[in-house]
């Protein structure tokens, strides 16, 4: 299939499915299949979503959740990336920490949140830390895999060229493992939005989690759906932004690998 046609199919297929599902949803509600108090029609939800964005607090609360998610993602990146590199390169660190890192995933975020509130208090900091905990594991795993995937012959060529550890990391390993790292960040940043909402549920806050609580207490189904739509839109926007960076990094990584492989081949031939 031609690349342009393939891209068009990737865009058209999910749009067509969405149109079919929304049309069936609209028909089901309008035909009396379910009361709108339990499941509003898509047209009513679109109207309410626009009203909440234009005149309500939805955008303000979304901004708070976005800040919490970004702060948490930043903390996760600062911890997961160096640790993932060390786990991949240093055997005793890998053997020592892997069981504890794996075991940490058995503890749900909703169980950690009350402890953070007890230890730290309320506000942005504990919610951001909870987001970091949620986003940490996929970043660590993909960083470790990305480091291990760097070809040994490329590293040897860099050392033969006289590159030290820092130069090898910045100019060789960094570009080659960046696509994998960004894959983990892409997954983590989407999960951090969920972590922010969980944190607001349990530790308070002024983000979308608080808005969901208010609409729930008021039995406002349309408000709940409008907030959920904003959550989905926020996660998709962050996911897509990192995906575009990942595509760009992937191209640069392939170019870097090609250059290093050519250099390695020439060096071997000269020898």
From TrEMBL:
Topology relative to the membrane: Multi-pass membrane protein
SUPFAM superfamilies in the record: MetI-like
Pfam families: BPD_transp_1
Organism: Gulosibacter bifidus
Protein name (Swiss-Prot/TrEMBL): ABC transporter permease
Chief location category: membrane
Family in the record: Belongs to the binding-protein-dependent transport system permease family.
ABC transmembrane type-1 domain: residues covered: 62-249
Keyword tags: Cell membrane, Membrane, Transmembrane, Transmembrane helix, Transport
């Amino acid at each position: 299939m031609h690349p342009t046609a393939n891209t068009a199919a990737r865009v058209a297929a999910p749009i067509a499915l969405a149109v079919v599902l929304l049309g069936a949803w609209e028909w089901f509600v309008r035909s009396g299949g379910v009361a709108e108090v339990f499941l509003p029609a898509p047209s009513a939800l679109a109207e309410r979503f626009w009203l909440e964005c234009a005149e309500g607090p939805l955008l303000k609360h979304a901004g708070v959740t976005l800040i919490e998610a970004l702060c948490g993602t930043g903390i996760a990146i600062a911890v997961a990336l160096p640790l993932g590199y060390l786990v991949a390169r240093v055997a005793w660190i890998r053997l020592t920490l892997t069981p504890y890192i794996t075991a940490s995933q058995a503890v749900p975020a909703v169980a950690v949140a009350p402890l953070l509130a007890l230890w730290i208090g309320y506000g942005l900091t504990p919610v951001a830390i909870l987001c970091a905990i949620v986003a940490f594991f996929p970043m660590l795993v993909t960083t470790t895999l990305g480091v291990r995937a760097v070809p040994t012959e490329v590293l040897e060529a860099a050392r033969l060229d006289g590159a030290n550890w820092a130069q090898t990391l910045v100019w060789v390993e960094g570009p080659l493992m960046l696509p994998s790292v960004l894959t983990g960040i892409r997954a983590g940043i989407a999960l951090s939005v969920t972590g922010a909402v969980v944190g607001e549920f349990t530790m308070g806050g002024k983000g979308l989690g608080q808005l969901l609580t208010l609409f729930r207490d008021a039995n406002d189904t349309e408000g709940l759906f409008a907030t959920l739509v904003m959550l989905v839109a926020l996660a998709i926007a962050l996911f897509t932004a990192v995906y575009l960076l990942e595509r760009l990094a992937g191209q640069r990584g392939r170019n870097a690998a090609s250059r290093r492989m050519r250099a390695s081949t020439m060096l071997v031939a000269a020898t």
